[in-house]
């Protein structure tokens, strides 16, 4: 699903109006019609609706909804947050089409609050207060209206985006409507997908209002990885597939006390369909790895008896890399200076596609220029916000304040694929492509989940998926696997190994298309 900023959406509206001759009035009519249909389908039992409309085109959509529902026998009250003469353009045309008796103007502070009984009797409240035109903190009567909508007991339907949510970032500009359902137009607004806005939308539907598909496809924006988008990337297995075609992954991982990370990365690669997996570990830990991995082969590399990778490991790892399809470096490596040196040497010398995670990222953060003087054309980094902050030399707040911008600029500067983890993981390619992952749940906020993701992405690269697709699909499958576990066990107490073991079911679910369109 395509996701765009409100600004891009306004350009799309303009292009459709100016170049294709489809008038703004028609787009508004279509927008209102789609909303009226969704309202009737979801809340048609009690035909009493209160519509709160701002003075822009979002309010104009509200007027169309009012006319259409009224025509279907609904009892309609429309509150406008200004005097009628302040409303202009297409919105004014649609305001004039309404029976005056249903309209109450509430231009001054306190006006709307006098109509609490109308809100109390409503079967549904329509939020047509603010849409993509919001640019700053919500002011005056608009803020009051948002409070009133939120305090009412009826379900809330938001037109285009819950009022108060910034359409580009999902940030709440002062205060915002909490909706039960949102119908957004033509393409998802980023604000409906990124948190906290995403949580305020309730059920999100994208409505076709007559903007041609090609115009939407050509617009700058992000791909929202929902079930349908991920399904397009997944290749079913041919009947004659053999393990030699499914990639041999080399995973460089583990240190004393952290063999679990190495085992989860390796076992998750197996569960994500890797043909063969070899996990290189410090020699002292090999007996443990022999027990923790069954299908994956463990490879002891010299560690001077310490349980940590040291410089001597380099030769063994590069020898092991021969004949492999991809190398993952990082899970459970530790902060040992010699290990960090080794990571940087691997990153600069290896020619195979590389996936770097965890302590591997911290090693790079100390000398990010190693990314620029490397041999491999494909490097995938999988940082959480703390690791991203270290890599980019900024604070975690900076990262969280602009997750897309930070991921985009780092991946283009260092020519790497980036998976910036968190609620709505961002995937960035060196060419500027951005995807936002739609799967996963808060139950996955526990140790080891990143090791599982590393295993999945590594396995997909090994199977020949183009790197950006491997990142997008791997992230989605990882989250979907977590969602399947949460469906069975709930969101508290899910372990990374639960997610690892559920991976085949995630692939099966995606292939079956049973959850088409879900996010
Ligand atoms: N042809 C199209 O384009 C189509 C667009 N469509 C619809 O139009 C919507 C976009 O409409 P829009 O651009 O008119 O902006 P909108 O969200 O209604 O808000 C603007 C109003 O809000 C006010 N306001 C702003 N900031 C504020 C603040 N902080 N606090 C308080 N007030 C604030 C601002 O007031 P002003 O600052 O001008 O005094 C202005 O009056 C879009 O989401 C979709 O629903 C569909 O019909 C399909 C066709
Ligand atoms: K709205």
From TrEMBL:
Domain YjeF C-terminal stretches: 226-510
Q: Where is AMP bound in this sequence? A: 421-425, 450
Q: Which Gene3D superfamilies match?
A: 3.40.1190.20, YjeF N-terminal domain
Which cofactor(s) does the record list?
Answer: K(+); Mg(2+)
Binding positions ((6S)-NADPHX): 57-61, 131-137, 142, 160, 261, 332, 384, 451
Q: Where is the YjeF N-terminal domain?
A: 9-217
Q: Name one GO molecular function term.
A: metal ion binding
Q: Which residues bind K(+)?
A: 58, 127, 163
- InterPro entries reported for this sequence: Carbohydrate_kinase_pred_CS, CARKD, Nnr, Ribokinase-like, YjeF_N_dom, YjeF_N_dom_sf
Q: Which domain of life is it from?
A: Bacteria
Q: Recorded E.C. number(s)?
A: 4.2.1.136, 5.1.99.6
SUPFAM superfamilies per UniProt: Ribokinase-like, YjeF N-terminal domain-like
Q: Name one Pfam family in it.
A: Carb_kinase
- Keywords, in A-Z order: ATP-binding, Isomerase, Lyase, Metal-binding, Multifunctional enzyme, NAD, NADP, Nucleotide-binding, Potassium
Q: How is the cofactor bound?
A: Binds 1 potassium ion per subunit.
Task: Report the record's Gene Ontology biological process terms.
Answer: metabolite repair; nicotinamide nucleotide metabolic process
Q: Which reaction does it catalyse?
A: (6S)-NADPHX + ADP = AMP + phosphate + NADPH + H(+); (6R)-NADHX = (6S)-NADHX; (6S)-NADHX + ADP = AMP + phosphate + NADH + H(+); (6R)-NADPHX = (6S)-NADPHX
Which NCBIfam families does the UniProt record give?
yjeF_cterm, yjeF_nterm
Q: How does it assemble?
A: Homotetramer.
Similarity section: Belongs to the NnrD/CARKD family. In the C-terminal section; belongs to the NnrD/CARKD family.
The job of this chain, per UniProt, is described as: Catalyzes the dehydration of the S-form of NAD(P)HX at the expense of ADP, which is converted to AMP. Together with NAD(P)HX epimerase, which catalyzes the epimerization of the S- and R-forms, the enzyme allows the repair of both epimers of NAD(P)HX, a damaged form of NAD(P)H that is a result of enzymatic or heat-dependent hydration.
Q: PANTHER family per the record?
A: ATP-DEPENDENT (S)-NAD(P)H-HYDRATE DEHYDRATASE (PTHR12592:SF0), ATP-DEPENDENT (S)-NAD(P)H-HYDRATE DEHYDRATASE FAMILY MEMBER (PTHR12592)
Please report the name of this protein according to its UniProt entry.
Bifunctional NAD(P)H-hydrate repair enzyme
């Amino acid at each position: 699903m395509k996701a765009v900023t409100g600004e891009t959406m306004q350009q799309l509206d303009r292009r459709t109006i100016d170049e294709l001759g489809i008038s703004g009035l028609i787009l508004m009519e279509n927008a209102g019609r789609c909303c009226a249909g969704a309202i009737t389908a979801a809340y048609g039992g009690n035909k009493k609706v209160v519509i709160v409309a701002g003075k822009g085109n979002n309010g104009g959509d509200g007027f169309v909804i009012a006319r259409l529902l009224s025509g279907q026998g609904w009892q309609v009250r429309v509150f406008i947050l200004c005097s009628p003469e302040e409303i202009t353009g297409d919105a004014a045309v649609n305001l004039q089409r309404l029976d005056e008796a249903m309209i109450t103007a509430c231009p001054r502070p306190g006006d709307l609050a006098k109509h609490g009984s109308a809100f109390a009797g409503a079967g549904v409240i329509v939020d047509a207060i603010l849409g993509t035109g919001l640019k700053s903190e919500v002011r005056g009567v608009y803020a009051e209206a948002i409070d009133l909508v939120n305090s009412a007991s009826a379900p809330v339907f938001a037109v285009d985006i819950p009022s108060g949510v910034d359409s580009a970032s999902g940030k709440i500009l002062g205060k915002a409507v909490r909706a039960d359902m949102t119908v957004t137009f033509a393409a998802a607004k980023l604000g409906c997908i990124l948190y906290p806005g995403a949580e305020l939308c309730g059920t999100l539907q994208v409505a076709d209002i007559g903007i041609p598909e090609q115009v939407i496809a050509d617009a700058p924006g992000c791909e929202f990885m929902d079930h349908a988008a991920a399904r397009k990337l997944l290749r079913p297995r041919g009947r004659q597939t053999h393990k030699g075609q499914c990639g041999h992954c080399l995973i460089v991982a583990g240190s004393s006390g952290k063999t679990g990370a190495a085992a989860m990365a390796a076992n998750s690669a197996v569960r994500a369909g890797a043909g063969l997996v070899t996990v290189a570990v410090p020699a002292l830990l090999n007996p443990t790895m022999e027990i923790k991995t069954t299908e994956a082969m463990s490879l002891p590399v010299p560690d001077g008896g310490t349980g940590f990778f040291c410089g001597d490991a380099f030769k063994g790892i590069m020898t092991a890399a021969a004949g492999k399809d991809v190398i993952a470096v990082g899970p459970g490596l530790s902060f040992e200076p010699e290990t960090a040196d080794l990571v940087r040497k691997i990153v600069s010398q290896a020619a195979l596609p590389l996936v770097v995670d965890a302590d591997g990222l911290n090693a790079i953060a100390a000398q990010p220029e190693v990314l620029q003087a490397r041999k491999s054309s494909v490097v995938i980094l999988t940082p959480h916000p703390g690791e991203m902050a270290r890599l980019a030399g900024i604070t975690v707040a900076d990262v969280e304040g602009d997750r897309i911008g930070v991921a985009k600029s780092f991946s283009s500067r260092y020519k790497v694929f980036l998976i910036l983890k968190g609620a709505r993981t961002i995937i960035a390619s060196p060419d500027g492509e951005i995807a936002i992952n739609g799967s996963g749940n808060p139950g996955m906020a526990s140790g080891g989940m990143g090791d599982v993701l590393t295993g999945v992405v590594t396995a997909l690269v090994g199977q020949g998926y183009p790197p950006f697709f491997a990142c997008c699909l791997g992230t989605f499958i990882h989250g979907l696997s977590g969602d399947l576990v949460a469906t069975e066990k709930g969101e508290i107490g899910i372990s990374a190994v639960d997610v690892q073991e559920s991976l085949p079911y995630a692939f099966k679910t995606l292939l079956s298309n049973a959850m088409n369109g879900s996010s």
